């Protein structure tokens, strides 16, 4: 029988592995979505594979076909989210046109990062939890270093006379302000969430205005 011979269900031998793979990917996505909800609700430490399986509507045995434990689930989820962030943060921290007002430049960057984190609240829950797996902590530290570097490069173009140490310090303060604002944003919904996003932008603008001077907003 050739590889293209049809089976009883109308599929060929060649098609069957692809279908099994597609079903497996759908099941993995289902388990990861359930894990995200559980991690956000209970935190990583208190979460269990039984709770994740229950949230996904499957048996623990089904979950163990794909993941040996909750650490493996968290690592897979974290890897996917960090890959997504790496794919897109270049746009959020791209060089700024000198004609762009400071308020607009900061607003655009903050909006992008806030949107990512409010769309994926589990990212903050995992990356800032007390007991996250070591591999995830290392990956997040690398991501943090890269983001700080991008902020430094952006600030260096706006603060050409500043010493490198001052630029680095300013970048860390900006990221610290953003993270503090993000924690408040994720703790609120609706109008209050929007208000905290505005407050975060205002604090960053007031902090950077005297440092950047009139280098932005020029026609």
What would you say this structure looks like, in words?
The chain is an all-alpha fold and 219 residues long. The chain folds into two domains: 13-68, Homeodomain-like (Arc Repressor Mutant, subunit A, Orthogonal Bundle); 70-211, Tetracycline Repressor, domain 2 (Orthogonal Bundle). 73% of the residues lie in helices and 0% in strands. The chain contains nine helices and no strands. Helix 1 (15-42) crosses helix 2 (49-56), helix 4 packs parallel to helix 7 and helix 5 runs antiparallel to helix 9. It is elongated and about 60 Å long. The relative contact order is 0.10. The model has no long low-confidence stretch (mean pLDDT 87).
Features:
Tetracycline Repressor, domain 2, mainly alpha, 219 residues, 2 domains
Please describe the topology of this protein:
Layout: H1 15-42, H2 49-56, H3 60-64, H4 70-92, H5 102-119, H6 121-127, H7 134-158, H8 164-186, H9 190-212
Distance between the termini: 73 Å
Number of helices: 9
Our count of domains comes out at 2
Largest sheet: none
What do we call the CATH homologous superfamily of the largest domain? Answer: Tetracycline Repressor, domain 2
- Overall structural class, as computed from helix and strand content, comes to mainly alpha
SSE pattern, N- to C-terminal: HHHHHHHHH
Rg from Cα: 22 Å
Keywords: DNA-binding
Region (Disordered): 1-24
DNA-binding region: 48-67
Domain HTH tetR-type: 25-85
């Amino acid at each position: 029988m050739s590889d293209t011979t049809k089976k009883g269900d109308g599929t060929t031998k060649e098609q069957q592995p692809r279908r099994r793979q597609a079903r497996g990917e759908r099941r993995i996505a289902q388990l990861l979505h359930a894990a995200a909800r559980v991690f956000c609700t209970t935190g990583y430490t208190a979460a269990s594979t039984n709770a994740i399986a229950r949230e996904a509507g499957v048996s623990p045995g089904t979950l163990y076909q794909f993941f040996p434990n909750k650490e493996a689930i968290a690592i897979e989820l974290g890897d996917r989210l960090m890959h997504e962030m790496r794919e897109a943060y270049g746009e959020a921290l791209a060089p700024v046109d000198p004609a762009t007002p400071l308020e607009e430049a900061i607003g655009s960057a903050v909006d992008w990062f806030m949107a990512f984190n409010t769309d994926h609240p589990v990212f903050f829950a995992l990356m800032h939890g007390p007991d996250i797996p070591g591999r995830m902590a290392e990956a997040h530290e690398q991501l943090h270093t890269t983001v700080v570097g991008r902020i430094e490069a952006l600030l260096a173009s706006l603060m050409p006379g500043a010493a490198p140490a001052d630029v680095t310090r300013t970048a860390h303060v900006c990221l610290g302000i953003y993270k503090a604002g993000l924690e408040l944003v994720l703790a609120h919904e609706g109008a209050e969430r929007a208000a905290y996003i505005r407050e975060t932008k205002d604090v960053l603008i007031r902090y950077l205005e005297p440092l950047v001077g009139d280098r932005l907003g020029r026609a």
